[in-house]
């Protein structure tokens, strides 16, 4: 039990020393939610795992053996690239799978489509949360399609199972939505789901703001994962800015003047005049004065 809890929180990115301290203080039978709350209270952050990693010692290699270079890790494994300009992604696996399966089948292929979409964009931190009981063989009342995809994503350290157990024949399931919101909030990332998490919004005012500002909804169109181009509405940021840590400022766009050449505002006009791009926007009166001065001065010089 201790090893399973240790592996679970290591996948979330917490250090082994902090996890062992919490398990010693709370006991081996402590619930995962209590352990996670204690880790947060201690100030332990998932980023600590990278700083605690020690370089592996050099190993002797037998003649003729293969190279000892480590196997390359998949995108999203461990903590990702901290210098990446893109936000971390936390996917509600159950919501995505059921949406792709038309709310009838838990379609693991939908999770793969969502993960691949963010991979192609260059996101280096991707986590998918799925309840542990989805590992069990599918039943008639809860069918699962392409279940092998879950195992593949777990090996890539992208998929994380939220804990569950059976007590007297009844399944006790931890609330996976709380894991999703907590990890996304701590990572300052984006939640991918069509769920509004209203109960968690009422539970924590900070989560309420975070969910309202960082929830990315989506649709599936012919096996294509499609988030909206305007995640926060027509007047909100674009999808690129929404997924970036430092949104790019929009380029200024000049609206052409509705009066065109008949405009009499001159340099006071706030609109763009394409007919005079390289000269100051003088008023009509000033333009007439400038035109009349030219021949007058030329005549004086001739005299």
Task: Label the overall shape.
Answer: elongated
Q: Architecture of the largest domain, according to CATH?
A: 3-Layer(aba) Sandwich
Order of helices and strands: HHHHEHEHEEHEEEHEHHEEEHH
CATH class group of the largest domain: Alpha Beta
Rg to the nearest angstrom?
Answer: 30 Å
Output mean pLDDT: 78
Percentage of residues in helical conformation: 25-40%
Q: What is the rounded distance between the termini?
A: 108 Å
What ranges have pLDDT less than 50 throughout 5 or more consecutive residues? 48-58, 60-77, 296-303
Largest sheet: 5 strands, parallel
Strand content: 5-15%
Class inferred from helices and paired strands: alpha/beta
Instruction: Give the number of helices.
Output: 12
Number of domains: 3
InterPro entries: Rege-1_UBA-like, RNase_Zc3h12_NYN, ZC3H12/N4BP1_RNase_Reg, Znf_CCCH
Protein name: ZC12D ribonuclease
Keywords: Endonuclease, Hydrolase, Magnesium, Metal-binding, Nuclease, Zinc, Zinc-finger
Family: Belongs to the ZC3H12 family.
Question: Can you offer a commentary on this structure?
Answer:
The structure is a single chain. The chain has helices spanning 2-11, 16-26, 32-41, 48-52, 93-100, 108-121, 148-155, 176-187, 198-203, 205-214, 239-242, 284-302; strands spanning 89-92, 106-107, 126-131, 144-145, 159-162, 164-167, 170-173, 190-192, 215-216, 219-220, 225-226. A hairpin with a 4-residue loop joins strand 10 (219-220) and strand 11 (225-226). It has 303 residues and is an alpha/beta fold. Helix content is 39%, strand content 12%. It has a five-stranded parallel beta sheet, with helices on both faces. It has a two-stranded parallel ribbon with strand order 2-4. It has three domains: 1-42; 89-243, Rossmann fold, CATH 3.40.50; 260-288, no CATH class. It has twelve helices and eleven strands. It is elongated and about 100 Å long. Helix 1 (2-11) crosses helix 2, helix 2 packs across helix 3 and helix 5 (93-100) crosses helix 6.
